[in-house]
Design goal:
elongated, single chain, transit peptide, mainly alpha, Mitochondrial carrier fold, 12 helices
């Protein structure tokens, strides 16, 4: 996330620089040097300049000034760390608020497989799933399995953030710009990296949400290790990677392109970010939701599907094409509050950081002026 400073040494020919044009030829001798390609080049002039940004520690705010301007304290936190923390908190809050819709979506996606082949074609609707959870498990049932999801979202956001920044640097062109293809590739790779790292927690969340008889995440994990082995934590990883790659790629790319297409005066507005995020999330979800359904059914204990190629025709044969989009309604409904909470929180913190940096800099400028004034007074 940090920018690495680099020094560049550039050789340039200066027109008109020739010994014959010099009033004292003996002071203007032509020098030859060997270049990297083993050829000899002539250099008549060389100049190296080094610029270094000076630290303004001598003008830093005092403890009393920070107490008087508490907002400036935020500027003491590294910006990357502050943004990372904001993203993690926003993601956890969004997941908690939308947990009931996510639980309903999971039940709708996996009902046919859990009900057995006889009742598989009947499926389960949104209202029916909502009522079933409340009747059998009470209010707490709507947040069942949310803890591992919240735990998962923190490292997931961290890995995705750093991975995306790293991949963006790798995919930049020679001119330093990131093309549409490069942005798609960076988003896809970042999505797959974060998914692979946190996938076991996602499997645990699913087991807690749809299977009965387990009360804690530890109990589920131990039972999976004992009965199914370590590989069970990565069941359905293939379709997960295939699904998350285009989803993150499309989501990021559409968000950037739509926002850039808007007039500049609207680009920095919070409501613009919210609307743009909803559009990009909707497009990405419509394209990639069937892979999410396949992934969920492959994660289930006793699943008859070994590969993605088995799962797709199996689900279509049992439920029809609609089966691939089962649970889409609650998933679409949770997109609005999820995106709103995350983006609003993130934008608010970004504005807070910007305001803190501005106030911090104003204190530094004030201290500098005071020291300069004191120095001038002493000189008199």
């Amino acid at each position: 996330m940090t920018n690495t400073a680099r020094a560049s040494l550039v050789w340039r020919e200066i027109s008109g620089l020739h010994p014959d044009n010099c009033t004292q030829p003996h002071q203007c001798q032509t020098q030859w040097f060997a270049s990297a390609d083993a050829t000899r080049r002539r250099s008549n002039f060389a100049c190296i300049s080094l610029a270094e940004k000076r630290e303004e520690k001598g003008f830093s705010p005092t403890y009393a000034q920070l107490l008087k301007h508490p907002l400036a304290m935020v500027a003491l936190v590294p910006k990357d760390a502050a943004l990372f923390a904001a993203g993690a908190i926003a993601g956890a809050a969004a997941k908690t608020v939308t947990a009931p819709l996510d639980r309903i979506k999971l039940l709708m996606q996996t009902h046919g497989l859990r009900a057995g082949q006889e009742g598989a074609r009947k499926g389960i609707g949104f209202i029916e799933a909502f009522t079933l959870i409340g009747k059998e498990e009470g209010l707490k049932g709507y947040w069942k399995g949310n803890l591992p999801q919240v735990i998962r979202i923190i490292p997931y956001s961290a890995v995705q953030l750093f991975a995306y920044e790293t991949y963006k640097k790798l995919f930049r062109g020679k001119d330093g710009e990131l093309s549409v293809i490069g942005r798609l590739a960076a988003g896809a790779c970042a999505g797959m990296t974060s998914t692979f790292v946190t996938y076991p927690l996602d499997v645990l969340r699913l087991r807690l949400a749809v299977e009965t008889g387990h009360k804690t995440m530890t109990e589920v994990a131990l039972n999976m290790l004992r009965e199914e082995g370590f590989a069970s934590f990565y069941n359905g990883l293939g379709p997960s990677l295939i699904g998350i790659a285009p989803y993150i790629a499309v989501n990021f790319c559409v968000f950037d392109l739509v926002k850039k297409a808007l007039p500049e005066k609207y680009q920095k507005r919070t409501e613009t970010s919210l609307a743009t995020a909803l559009v990009s999330a909707t497009v990405a979800t419509l394209m990639c939701y069937p892979l999410d359904t396949v992934r969920r059914q492959m994660q289930m204990k006793g699943t008859p599907y070994a590969t993605v190629l088995d799962a797709f025709p199996g689900i279509v044969a049992r439920d029809g094409l609609v089966g691939l989009y089962r649970g889409f309604l609650p998933n679409a409904l949770k997109t609005l509050p999820n995106s709103s909470i995350r983006l609003t929180t993130f934008d608010t913190v970004k504005r807070l950081i910007a305001a803190a940096e501005k106030e911090f800099q104003s204190i530094i400028d004030e201290n500098r002026k005071k020291q300069e004034q004191t120095a001038n007074d002493n000189s008199i």
